[in-house]
Amino acid sequence: MVNFNYLVPVLGWLLATASASPTSSTARANTAAPFIIKGPSQSNRTALAANSIPVFTAYVNFNATGHQFEFNELSAAGYRMISLSVYGQPPNHLYAAVWVQRSGPEYAAIAEASGSQFQAFFDAHNGFASTLISVTGPPGGEIFAGVMEKNGVTNWFQQCGYTTAQYQSELANAASTGYILKSFTEYGTTSERLYCGTWYHNDQNQPSTSFIDESYDGYQQTFNSQVANAGWRPGYLSVSEDHLISSEFVNTNVGSWVARHAMDTDDLLNELNTQLAAGLYPIHLQGGGTGDNVNFAALWAQQDIPF
C-alpha cells in the first residue's frame, strides 16, 4: 500500500561501459524547456527487455504544478521515485525526477516545502527512512523536496544546514563510525553554501569516497582517478547553482553504465535518447542553475538496484 502524502503550500497535505564527459554546447534559446521521456517504448522494448530495464518515466524542468501532476499520475500507476532534484533560485526553481514502475515498501513524498514544513513531514513519518533529499534556494528561503520509505532501515540519520566545514567533518565522522551516504544535496549561495545529507549504517561495509564542490574540470579528474579502480563508479551527484559538483563514488555493480555532466537541456535530451537506444536508462539525474543557466549531471545503467 503506497501512502500518497505530498506537501503543497496553501493546500497542505494531499493524498497523493563506463565514461564521464562534459558535453560542449553553445547557447540555445529556451534551454530550460520542460520535457518528459518514457521507456521502454515499442521501438526499444526488445533491447531494454534483454537488460531487464524497468518501465520508467524521467522528466526535467517541470514547475511545482507539473511535478505535482506527474506525482499524482505516476504514483497511482504503481511508479516510485529513484531520483529527485529541485534546482534553481526560487521562485524560478524547477524539478527533475526519475520514476520506475515497481512494487516496493510504502513511501511518502514532499515538495515545495519550507524548512519547518519539511521538518513536520519528517517528524510525522516515524518508522520511515529518508531515501531522497533535495534542496534549493538561499538560507531562509529554501525549498525542500524528498522521499521517505518504510523500508525497514532503522539505523540512519539525516541532517540539513551544514556549512562546508561542518559537512566535511560529518563525512569523515560518519565514515569512521560505520555510516555511508545515501543521499545528499547542496544549496544556499556562493558565499554561504549549505548541505544536507542522509546516512545509513553501512551494514555491508560498502566502500565509498566523497568529494565536495569541484569544478567540471576538477570533477573530471576525480572521476578519472576513481574509475581507474576496478568496479568503482559515481553513485550520487549534486550540482550547485554555480555548477560545482559534489560526488560520491561507490564500488557496486549496476551492469554497464555511463555518466555525463555539464549538459544543458538539449544535451540531456539527446543523451537520454542515445542511452535508451543502447539499452540503458537514467538512474540518477540532478540539475543546478536557473533558467538558461541550468546544467545537468546524470547516470545511466542497466540497473538502479545493484546486483
State the oligomer.
single chain
The computed structural class is alpha+beta
Total tally of structural domains? 1
Task: Return residue spans where pLDDT drops below 50 for at least 5 consecutive residues.
Answer: 1-30
Q: Which term fits the overall shape?
A: globular
Distance between the termini: 26 Å
Question: How many strand elements?
Answer: 19
Strand order of the largest sheet: 3-17-19-18
Radius of gyration: 18 Å
User: In sequence order, what are the helices and strands, one letter per element?
Assistant: EEEEHEHEEEHEEEHEEEHEEEHEE
> What is the typical, i.e. mean, pLDDT?
89
Helix percent band:
10-25%
Number of helices: 6
Largest sheet: 4 strands, mixed
Strand percent estimate: 35-45%
Keywords: Signal
InterPro entries: PGH-like_rpt
Organism: Galerina marginata (strain CBS 339.88)
Signal peptide: 1-20
Write the layout of secondary structure elements.
Blueprint: E1 5-8, E2 12-15, E3 20-22, E4 35-39, H1 45-50, E5 56-62, H2 64-76, E6 79-87, E7 94-101, E8 107-113, H3 115-124, E9 129-136, E10 143-149, E11 156-162, H4 164-176, E12 179-188, E13 193-201, E14 208-214, H5 216-227, E15 233-239, E16 245-250, E17 257-263, H6 265-277, E18 281-288, E19 295-301
Parallel strand pairs: 3-17
Antiparallel strand pairs: 1-2, 4-5, 5-7, 6-7, 8-10, 9-10, 11-13, 12-13, 14-16, 15-16, 17-19, 18-19
